[in-house]
């Protein structure tokens, strides 16, 4: 499957992709290929040699027949025979070297391109991924790149070689005998019409095939990643039906392609046979008039070598076209210009822990912050607050109020529209992002664990974290009581319980010793049994640290220094738990609601 899903979805591009024009595309392709140009050049130089060698055997056959077999001068057979063997060996050797060089160069270039795409992707803003289906991005980096590389083996070289061979055959035929040559060329119009017509239908059919394959992939992916939902809601039958339909449609379009492919093959074979028959008939009538037996054999050989490249030419052209449009999509991805906040250029904050306890400068301050995701719909409206160093503050409010957004802005996953955000008195835009995110660590509800060990999930391969820190962090959050550091973690942590996953993530944060810790509903997933373990871990994490806790369950946050209540993108109330209850506003209402719902229901 080459660029299948890609060519399918390219019509529905929702992303801002620059469409490079062809010369620019060639330039970009060259920039990827040029580091490997020596290999490529060598391969290209071998093409004419390969074509020439391909033309030689019929001619040698003619010589053998006319000069050795027909005059019964059998002593001449050996030299021609040996020459023929040498030519054949060298021809195939050349073909081997040429294809190998081309493919090696191509694969190296494509490997570079994948690396480049991967690096580029990881440096993009998260908002890019909000808009872009992940499947599409994956297709770019795998299938589309594969599609480009196919043109190195099946497209470019062979096409150029074929054209040279065709030209050579035409010249050789005309040189051998003009009348026989013209006779052979008589079928050309018919051949051209057949090839062009069939290939056009084939191309359309292959397009349909790719689209249906993409549909199969999408269906499969959805069913497999949602397998739990499929099973629990007993949707297997429906899913099977859905897949069956996709599968059948794919199979049927393949049937069509096979029919046309075989049809084209048969027509070309037939035309080739008719030509051979015509040659035999025509020359049979004229033996002695400058047409030798050897010449006839050579002509038949050339005629057969003539038809195959013509038959394949438009298929090869299609491969190159596909590669070009795949290249366009890959370079379109590389042209997405939405980098994450810049890093590595800003001056650092003082690293002494002194400012952690300097109570005159707030650890975090929002000044008249306005923000939106799309640049239009305001999500935060004129939000101002400050959090003293060392304090523990809770953010509460109804769903969609903008709580998570506050945190995303603080860590610069997104940027604000207006206002200012300060960390220890420094505008966060002036702080190196890598450093900012080291100092402000967010633990959110969507935990992500990588395949590996507990240890590798805590360090995340950060060389700055030594083993003593890992052990200490794991012990303090209570993880070591449950798991060893070398225990295997499956992809996404699928082999661990929710509480275990949670504790690993806590240890990950604690090992980094952040100045500011944010818990965004970090415990919402945990059942009451593990809650106790997790709460102990959290207490350890928040110990002597500025902490921001976002929680739905207000009962869990009564011990904080102050509570900020968000509603509809605004900070509407702030105070201690007691003050806010006294005030009898939104917080009091939310609290009443939860308190009542959590009270034991009397049995009748
Ligand atoms: N990536 C996004 N792109 C566009 N809009 C978003 C995005 N994330 C959130 N929003 C919108 O911004 C608003 C605030 O979302 P936010 O996630 O900050 O709410 P929240 O207070 O954290 O809610 P919850 O309590 O449910 O977690 C919501 O209206 C939401 O639809
Ligand atoms: Mg949220």
**Multimeric organization:** single chain
The average pLDDT is 84
The fraction of residues assigned to DSSP E strands is 5-15%
The CATH architecture of the largest domain: 3-Layer(aba) Sandwich
Please indicate the count of domains: 3
User: Which residues form runs of ≥5 with pLDDT under 50?
Assistant: 1-20, 351-355
> Strand sequence of the main sheet, in spatial order?
6-9-10-3-11-12
CA-based gyration radius: 36 Å
Count of individual helical segments: 20
Residues in helix, %: 55-70%
CATH class of the largest domain: Alpha Beta
Shape: elongated
Report the CATH superfamily of the largest domain: P-loop containing nucleotide triphosphate hydrolases
Secondary structural class: alpha/beta
CA-to-CA gap between the ends? Answer: 65 Å
SS elements, strand count: 12
């Amino acid at each position: 499957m080459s660029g299948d899903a890609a060519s399918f979805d390219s019509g529905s591009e929702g992303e801002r992709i620059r469409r490079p024009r062809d010369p620019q595309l060639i330039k970009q392709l060259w920039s990827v290929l040029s580091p490997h140009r020596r290999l490529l050049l060598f391969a290209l130089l071998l093409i004419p040699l390969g074509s020439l060698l391909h033309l030689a055997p019929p001619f040698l056959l003619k010589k053998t027949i006319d000069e050795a077999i027909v005059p019964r001068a059998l002593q001449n057979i050996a030299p021609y025979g040996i020459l023929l063997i040498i030519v054949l060996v060298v021809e195939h050797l050349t073909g081997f070297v040429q294809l190998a060089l081309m493919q090696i160069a191509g694969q190296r270039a494509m490997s570079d391109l994948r690396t480049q795409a991967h690096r580029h992707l990881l440096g993009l803003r998260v908002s890019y991924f909000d808009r872009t289906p992940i499947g599409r991005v994956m297709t770019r980096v795998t299938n589309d790149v594969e599609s480009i590389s196919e043109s190195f083996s099946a497209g470019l070289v062979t096409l150029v070689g074929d054209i040279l061979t065709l030209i050579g055959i035409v010249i050789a035929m005309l040189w051998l005998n003009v009348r026989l040559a013209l006779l052979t060329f008589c079928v050309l119009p018919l051949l051209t019409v057949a090839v062009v017509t069939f290939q056009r239908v084939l191309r359309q059919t292959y397009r349909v095939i790719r689209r249906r394959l993409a549909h199969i992939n999408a269906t499969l992916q959805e069913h497999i990643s949602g397998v739990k939902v499929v099973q629990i809601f007993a949707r297997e039958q429906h899913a099977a039906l859905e897949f069956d339909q996709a599968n059948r449609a794919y199979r049927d379009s393949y049937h069509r392609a096979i029919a046309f492919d075989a049809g084209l093959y048969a027509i070309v074979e037939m035309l080739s046979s008719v030509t051979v028959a015509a040659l035999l008939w025509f020359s049979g009538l004229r033996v002695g008039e400058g047409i030798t037996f050897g010449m006839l054999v050579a002509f038949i050989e050339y005629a057969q070598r003539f038809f195959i490249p013509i038959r394949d030419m438009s298929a090869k052209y299609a491969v190159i076209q596909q590669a070009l449009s795949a290249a366009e999509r890959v370079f379109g991805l590389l042209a997405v210009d939405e980098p994450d906040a810049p890093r590595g250029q800003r001056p650092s904050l003082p690293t002494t822990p002194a400012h952690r306890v300097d109570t005159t400068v707030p650890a975090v301050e929002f000044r008249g912050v306005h923000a939106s995701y799309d640049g239009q719909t305001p999500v935060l409206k004129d939000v101002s607050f400050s959090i003293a160093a060392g304090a523990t503050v809770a953010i509460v409010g109804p769903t969609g109020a903008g709580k998570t957004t506050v945190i995303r802005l603080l860590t610069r996953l997104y940027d604000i529209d207006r206002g200012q955000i300060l960390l220890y008195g420094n505008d966060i835009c002036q702080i190196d992002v890598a450093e900012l995110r080291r100092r402000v660590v967010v633990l959110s509800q969507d935990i992500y664990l990588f395949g590996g060990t507990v240890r590798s999930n805590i360090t995340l391969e950060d060389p700055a974290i030594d083993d003593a820190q890992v052990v200490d962090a794991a012990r303090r959050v209570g993880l070591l009581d449950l798991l060893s550091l070398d225990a295997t973690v499956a992809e996404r942590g699928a082999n661990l319980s929710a509480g275990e996953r949670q504790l690993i993530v806590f240890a990950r944060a604690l090992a980094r010793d952040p100045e500011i810790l944010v818990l965004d509903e970090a415990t919402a997933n945990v059942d009451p049994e593990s809650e106790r373990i997790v709460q102990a871990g959290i207490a350890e994490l928040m110990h002597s640290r500025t902490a921001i806790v976002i929680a739905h369950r207000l009962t869990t946050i009564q011990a904080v220094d102050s509570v900020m209540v968000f509603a509809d993108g605004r900070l509407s109330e702030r105070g201690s738990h007691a003050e806010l209850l006294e005030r009898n506003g939104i917080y009091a209402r939310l609290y009443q609601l939860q308190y009542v719902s959590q009270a034991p229901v009397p049995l009748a």
